[in-house]
Design brief:
five-stranded antiparallel sheet; 80 residues; mainly beta
Length: 80
């Protein structure tokens, strides 16, 4: 999984699968698109107006939680 952020356009992209073939984009809302791979699996999630969405919780930090062992890592998001 890879999270990228385009500061110029304020777009975050969560890629769940390696780069592959063409995808179909489904517009879920004005601020959310989901890319579906040809086999029907989710390829990636695009967050428009990303600063607002990513900072809405957790105090502007990206929190990674390993539910199996209970470990948590925190990464500060860059200032808007």
């Amino acid at each position: 999984m890879k999270l990228t952020y385009d500061r110029d356009n304020n777009i975050a992209y969560i890629r769940l699968r390696p780069q592959g073939s063409e995808v179909e984009t489904i517009r879920v809302s004005d601020e959310l698109n989901v890319d579906i791979a040809p086999d029907g699996s989710v390829y990636g999630i695009e967050l428009l107006n990303a600063n607002e969405q990513l900072r809405a919780a957790d105090g502007g930090k990206l929190v990674l939680v390993d539910e199996v062992n209970g470990k948590e890592s925190t990464l500060p998001l860059s200032p808007s």
